[in-house]
């Protein structure tokens, strides 16, 4: 039986500028995406029966709402056979954290099934399919750290410094839509050039709104500020802080109050999904 296990990494928005709003309500962004080596793990097994099965079930998510299921359904018309798939998942990425776990699971599913079902779609075609499920999916299909524009689909490769990060999730989840519909959100940050972004970075326009709506984020932000330049990823709730040395990151982590989930991870400019998939493809008999 054909089995493929792939990681689905989280992402950080090193900064996130909102430069306008489209007539359909979506916001035009400028952001730099970088992956982290904190990953979900997805194992795919093809099945004779034409069904999509996901185990274990995820807290509060019906199978038809699971982005893994939705991604598999999107690819079905391109299959070369009528085989189904069984997906087992080890979930490590917190939900509603702004690190894109659901989007990454969906992108990993598209990449895995494109290979296992021999759909032969290009990365651009997969990214377009993925974008119909979520604005964050194309970056995980692209597979390289990127300066992103539009709603996150216009991607230009970049290679920012890849430090260690202390990642902290306050005791709350932030729905993306709540932040994007807040009337206090700054939506008119002037557009910058990529060279400016790489040299000077930027800020996150969602930070002030998220701190005001979620006192848990505000409290964690103020605590972390004593150790450096704290950033919010996406629309939150996760905060992160960069360190050159892993020991320094671990020291701050060890002093964090127990009610916050914390991780020390490393920034990656290439996606671990693509690294592992390419190795797997290279090992298959011709
Ligand atoms: C803000 C970002 C930055 O990376 O990340 P997260 O904090 O969600 O991880 C993303 O653009 C989020 O992408 P994603 O989480 O896939 O969002 P989607 O499901 O496409 O959209 C959820 C809702 O957010 C709003 N939305 C999303 C993206 C965008 N550029 N403008 C928007 O206004 C829309 O109201 C949409 O209905
Ligand atoms: N496989 C999945 N993993 C995580 N979340 C999922 C998944 N499928 C659907 N979802 C839904 O997507 C929402 C956003 O998830 P996620 O991408 O992890 O957060 P964020 O967009 O804040 O980074 C979750 O709250 C959940 O309801």
UniProtKB/TrEMBL annotation:
Pathway: Isoprenoid biosynthesis; isopentenyl diphosphate biosynthesis via DXP pathway; isopentenyl diphosphate from 1-deoxy-D-xylulose 5-phosphate: step 3/6
Catalyzed reaction equations: 4-CDP-2-C-methyl-D-erythritol + ATP = 4-CDP-2-C-methyl-D-erythritol 2-phosphate + ADP + H(+)
GO molecular-function term, one example from the UniProt record: ATP binding
Binding site for ATP: 94-104
Limits of the GHMP kinase N-terminal domain: 66-143
Active site (UniProt): 11, 136
Gene Ontology BP terms: isopentenyl diphosphate biosynthetic process, methylerythritol 4-phosphate pathway; terpenoid biosynthetic process
Gene3D superfamilies: 3.30.230.10, GHMP kinase, C-terminal domain
Enzymatic class: transferase
SUPFAM superfamilies referenced in this protein's UniProt entry, alphabetically: GHMP Kinase, C-terminal domain, Ribosomal protein S5 domain 2-like
UniProt keyword Transferase, yes or no: yes
A Pfam family hit: GHMP_kinases_C
EC number(s) recorded for this UniProt protein: 2.7.1.148
HAMAP family reported in the protein's UniProt record: IspE
Family that this chain belongs to: Belongs to the GHMP kinase family. IspE subfamily.
Function of the protein: Catalyzes the phosphorylation of the position 2 hydroxy group of 4-diphosphocytidyl-2C-methyl-D-erythritol.
Protein name: 4-diphosphocytidyl-2-C-methyl-D-erythritol kinase
Species for this entry: Marinomonas piezotolerans
């Amino acid at each position: 039986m054909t089995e493929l296990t792939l990681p689905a990494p989280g992402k950080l928005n090193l900064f996130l500028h909102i430069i306008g709003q489209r007539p359909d309500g979506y916001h035009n962004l400028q952001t730099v995406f970088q992956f982290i080596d904190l990953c979900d793990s997805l194992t795919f097994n093809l099945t004779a029966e034409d069904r999509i099965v996901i185990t274990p079930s995820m807290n509060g998510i019906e199978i038809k709402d699971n982005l893994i299921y939705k991604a598999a359904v999107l690819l079905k018309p391109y299959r070369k056979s009528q085989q189904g798939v069984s997906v087992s998942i080890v979930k490590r990425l917190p939900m509603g954290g702004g690190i894109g776990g659901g989007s990454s699971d969906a992108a990993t599913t598209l990449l895995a099934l494109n290979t296992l079902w021999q759909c032969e779609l290009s990365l651009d075609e997969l990214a377009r399919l993925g974008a119909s499920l979520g604005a964050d999916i194309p970056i995980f299909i692209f597979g390289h750290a990127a300066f992103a524009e539009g709603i996150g689909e216009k991607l230009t490769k970049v290679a920012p410094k890849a430090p260690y990060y202390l990642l902290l999730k306050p005791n709350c989840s932030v729905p993306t839509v709540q932040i994007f519909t807040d009337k206090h959100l700054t939506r008119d940050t002037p557009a910058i050039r990529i060279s400016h972004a790489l040299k000077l970075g930027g800020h996150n326009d969602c930070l002030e709104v998220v701190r005001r709506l979620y006192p848990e984020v505000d409290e964690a932000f103020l605590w972390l500020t004593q150790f450096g330049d704290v950033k919010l990823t996406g629309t939150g709730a996760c905060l992160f802080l960069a360190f050159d040395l892993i020991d320094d990151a671990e020291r701050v982590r060890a002093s964090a109050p127990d009610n916050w989930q914390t991780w020390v991870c490393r920034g990656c400019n290439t996606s671990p999904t693509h690294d592992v998939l390419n190795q797997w493809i290279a090992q298959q008999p011709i």
